[in-house]
Amino acid sequence: MRKQDSLFIAGAWVNACGAGCATVTNPGTEEVIGQVPLGDERDVERAVTAARQAFAGWAATPSSVRAGYIRALAEQLKARADEMASLITAELGMPVQWCRAVQVEGPIAGLEQYIHLAALMDEVHEVGNSLVLREPVGVCAFINPWNYPLHQLLGKLAPALAAGCTVVVKPSQETPLHAFLLAEMIEAIGLPAGVFNLVSGPGAKVGEALAKHPDVDMVSFTGSTDAGVRVAQAAAPSVKRVCLELGGKSPLLIGADADLAAAVRYGVQDVMINSGQTCTALTRMLLPASRYAEALELARAECESLRLGDPLDPQSFLGPMCSAAQRRTVREYIQIGRQEGARLLCGGAEAPSEFERGYYLKPTLFADVDNRMRIAQEEIFGPVLCLIPYADEAQAVQLANDSPFGLSSAVWAGSSERALSLARQLRAGQCFINGGAFNYLAPFGGYKQSGNGREWGEEGLAEFVEVKAIQL
Ligand code: NAD
Fold this sequence. Notes:
Blueprint: E1 2-3, E2 7-9, E3 12-14, E4 21-25, E5 32-37, H1 41-60, H2 63-79, H3 81-92, H4 96-117, E6 125-127, E7 130-136, E8 139-143, H5 149-163, E9 166-170, H6 177-189, E10 196-198, H7 203-212, E11 218-222, H8 225-235, E12 241-245, E13 251-254, H9 260-272, E14 284-288, H10 292-305, H11 324-339, E15 343-348, E16 362-367, H12 374-377, E17 384-390, H13 393-401, E18 405-406, E19 410-412, H14 416-423, E20 432-433, E21 447-448, H15 457-462, E22 465-471
Parallel strand pairs: 1-5, 8-9, 8-11, 9-10, 11-12, 13-14, 13-19, 14-17, 16-17, 19-20
Antiparallel strand pairs: 2-3, 4-5, 6-7, 7-22, 15-16, 18-21
C-alpha cells in the first residue's frame, strides 16, 4: 500500500488544500494499493505561483547545469527502475517484463537524449541583420493519461527542463503513483525548488484550473480527443500555447507482396501489447483481398497464442484492462461490432472464465470489417483488432487515410522501397515500415484529430521554446 498524503510544491511535501483522497486499484486483483490527495484549485494556485517564482532563476541557469540535473534524474531512474516498473505494473496491469522495457527503460533512454539537446538552447542564428535566440516558453502545465504514464511524463518533462521551463504536473487519477515516485527522485537530485511541482486530482478540477490559469504559459496535454478539446477551449482566453497529444485509430497496410506471416504477427502483437491501451495501436489491419482468408487464419492463430494472465507472471503477454470502466467501454464496442455485422473471429465481450477477479478481457479479432463501421472509426482503446480487406493499393491508401485520426501508421511490403512509397502517402505523424523500431530521437505526434504537438527529439524541445529576433 503506497499512501501519499501530500503534494510536492515549491520543493517540499505539503498538505493538499483539497479535501480527501483518491484510491488507486490494482486492476489484476481489484485491491486498493494506494491513495493520493485530491488537490483542488487552491493547490493549483500554490503550484503555479511556485513555478512562476522559480522560472527566472531556472531559465538563467546554464544549459550545461540543467543537463546535469537531467543526467542525475536518469541515474535515479536507473537505480530505482525495478521499483518504478513494479509500481506501474501494480497500478496499470501491464505485465512486468514488458513494463520494465517499455514503460521504464525506453523513457529513460528518451530522457537521456535531452542531456545533449539542452545545448541547442544556446545556439544563436544570424539572419540578415538579426540574431535569432531561443528562450524557454515559461511555466508549463502537464496533464497526463494513464496508459504509458512515465513515458508521457518524461516526454514532456525532459525537453521542458532542457529548455529552462518550470512545470506543474497533473497525473491521471488511475495511475498517479509513478509521479509521486518520480517526485521523490526530483527531491533526491536537489532540483531547485519550484521547478517541478506535482498536484494530483480530478481532470475537471485540477486539469481545468491549470488549463485556464493566466500565469501558465503553456499546457501540454496527452489524453482523449474529447478532453483535449476542452483543455484547448479552457486555455484559449489566456492565449497560452497548447500542445495536444490525442487518440488514434492507426492502420497497418499489408501489401500483396508482403511476408504475410511476419506482417500479421507484428500487427496482432502491436495491438495486444498493454491490452490495446496504446494511443498508436495499429487497430485497423488492411489486407489484400487476394490473401484475406490466409491472413485471417494467421491472425487467429497468433491471437490465440498470446497469453492473457497475471501481470506478475513473466509468461503473460497481456494483463487486465486498467480499470473496470475501461473494460466496460471495450465490451460495449465489441457488442457494437457484432451489431454492425462484423464477424467475431476470436475473443469476445464475455469475461474469461479462468480469472476470479481482475479486469480481464480476451484479445478479440473482428473480420469482414467495413472501414465505415464505428469499430473502425472510433478509438476503442482495448485489445480489439479490425481486419479489413482491400481490392487494390489505391483503395488501401484511401482506407488507411479515411479516419478522423492521424497519430501513427505502418506498412509491411515486399521491399523497403515499396513500403517507403506507401508510407509517404499516409496522413499520420509516424509510419513504421517492415517492423521499424520506435526512435526517441525522432519527433512523435499526430495529424488531424490526433493532436498538434510533437514530443521527443529536437522537435520535442522546440515545443518548449520561444524564439526572439534581435535586430542589429
Ligand atoms: P483522458 O482524456 O480521460 O484523461 C487524460 C488526462 O486529462 C487525465 O489526467 C484527466 O484527469 C485529464 N482531464 C480529463 N478531463 C479534463 C478536463 N476537462 N480538463 C483538464 N483535464 C482533464 O484520457 P485517458 O483515458 O487518461 O487516456 C487515454 C487517451 O489518451 C486515449 O485517447 C489515448 O489515445 C490518449 N493517448 C494519447 C497519446 C499520444 O501521445 N497521442 C499517448 C497516450 C495516450
